[in-house]
UniProtKB/TrEMBL annotation, chain A:
Pfam family, one: YIEGIA
Spans through the membrane: 6-23, 35-60, 116-148
InterPro entries, alphabetized: YIEGIA (IPR025918)
Keywords from the UniProt entry: Membrane, Transmembrane, Transmembrane helix
Protein name according to UniProt: Membrane protein
From TrEMBL, chain B:
InterPro entries, alphabetized: YpzH
Pfam (any one): YIEGIA_cap
Domain of life: Bacteria
Protein name: Uncharacterized protein
């Protein structure tokens, strides 16, 4: 026991690990998988927290080279990202409606960045404890938790598009949602299935930037995946014609969402679509370009 | 390496004069027979049957 024991135990290890547990949510996506998947991430969070906590005492003891071990931490957590990406990509081939690479990359990046958040939390709390006192450390803890909560939830589709239910119809063999062409279905029997089970939605972008974001194929796949997870999907490996799809209206950038949910509740479906996360990698800001601003 | 993303696996028609060899062609007598054959092939080949016209269906692997 020395003067660093409590700050490291309280600040780093306990608060840091707690922060990881708070941002480790297993929601409708069921990822990380319950128990085993969770244990991996809590353990990694514990390691991250310990690393963050010992950095401050190391500097106080004038052991500056000790800070270099943070670089080991960085490569360690990059490995976490690779691991998550690897697992999810492998699994994706067996999903009825795949997540898509953009969504997977988004999840992997989130896992890596959350470990850094844990390091920073542990670092600041230990620092506050060592420089001032335990009460100040508690104060810093609360601020860190609030910041983590605030910045860890990105925007959702409901913020950037307006969602309306639309009619699903056939013009000959062509399947349409509203006036957006989706695909060609030849067999009358399949057409009947689609008219029976299909649901259509039209997503209208709220501004020009959003057009390119929802046009992103990865973002569209994420919408289909989330709807299929939340409402079920009428599809099987032997019925390739029953496939949820999203196509774009080239005139105005609206997208037509065609889904085959098992639960045909319009209100629920609109709620699910509006809470689909906007993928970081799909966000585009044409309005920030110099060519746009010159006008 | 060239990877074919889409391929026509079979052609089903009631009008043999409109198609030539290149894929497997199934010539049917009537629209009903064509629907039946296409439905079977769809399940067997795991491809989607698309209608090019009232006389020609193709099974495409996506």
């Amino acid at each position: 026991m020395n003067e660093y024991t409590y700050p490291i135990l309280f600040g780093g290890v306990t608060i840091g690990t707690l922060a990881r547990i708070i941002i480790l949510k297993t929601d409708y996506r069921q990822y990380p998988t319950y128990l085993h998947g969770k244990i991996i991430h809590i353990a990694l969070g514990f390691i991250a927290a310990s690393l963050g906590a010992v950095a401050v005492p190391a500097i106080m003891e004038k052991e500056f080279t000790a800070v270099t071990f943070l670089t080991i931490a960085a490569s360690q957590f990059r490995e976490v990202r690779n691991m998550e990406r690897g697992t999810l990509t492998e699994m994706d081939g067996y999903e009825l409606v795949p997540r898509g690479n953009t969504y997977i990359e988004g999840i992997a990046v989130a896992f890596e960045s959350r470990n850094y958040l844990v390091i920073f939390t542990a670092l600041f709390v230990t620092m506050a404890y060592l420089i001032w006192n335990v009460y100040f450390a508690i104060f810093v803890t609360i601020i860190c938790f609030l910041l983590i909560k605030k910045y860890m939830s990105g925007s959702t589709l409901g913020d950037i598009v307006s969602i309306k239910e639309a009619t699903v119809s056939f013009d000959g063999a062509g399947l349409y949602v509203d006036n957006i062409y989706i695909m060609n279905i030849g067999l009358p029997a399949r057409q009947a299935d689609i008219m029976k089970y299909g649901m259509g939605f039209v997503l209208t972008p709220k501004n020009f930037d959003v057009r390119s974001t929802i046009a992103n194929l990865g973002q569209r796949q994420a919408i289909l995946h989330d709807v299929s997870i939340s409402l079920g999907v009428i599809r099987d490996s032997g019925t390739p014609a029953l496939v949820p799809l999203i196509k774009r209206d080239l005139d105005d950038g609206r997208i037509g969402v065609f889904v085959l949910p098992q639960d045909k509740d319009v209100k629920k479906a609109i709620k699910v679509i509006s809470s689909v996360p906007v993928l970081e990698n799909a966000i585009r800001m044409p309005s920030e370009s110099k060519a746009q601003n010159k006008e | 390496m060239l990877v074919l993303e889409k391929a026509i696996l079979a052609t089903i028609t009631t009008n043999a004069s409109k198609v030539t060899a290149g894929t497997s062609i199934f010539i049917c007598e009537s629209k009903e027979e064509m629907d039946k054959v296409a439905a079977n092939l769809e399940a067997i080949l795991d491809g989607i049957s698309h209608a090019l016209s009232d006389e020609i269906y193709i099974i495409v692997k996506h």
